[in-house]
Amino acid sequence: MCSATVLSVDRRHELENLRRSIAMLTPGAKALTREEALLLFQELGDVRTRLDHLRRALRQLADEEE
User: Fold this and answer.
1) pTM of this prediction?
2) Which of 27, 41, 51, 54 could form a disulfide with 19 if both were Cys (CB 3.0 to 4.6 A apart)?
3) Contacts by 41-44 with C-beta closer than 8 Å and gap 24+?
4) Mean pLDDT of 14-32
């Protein structure tokens, strides 16, 4: 497994830990609501997945050019 993949897995693990922490907040907590925070983390995870896909595709294109 390359270091970029390990780093990506580590980041996903950190995000999941944060998501779980937010999920345990009391409903109606101040600042972001529990639901807003969970939605934000879901969207962040979706963006992260898309970025990982784009990086792989760009890496593949660069390798093909060589």
Assistant:
1) 0.56
2) 41
3) 41/15, 44/15
4) 80
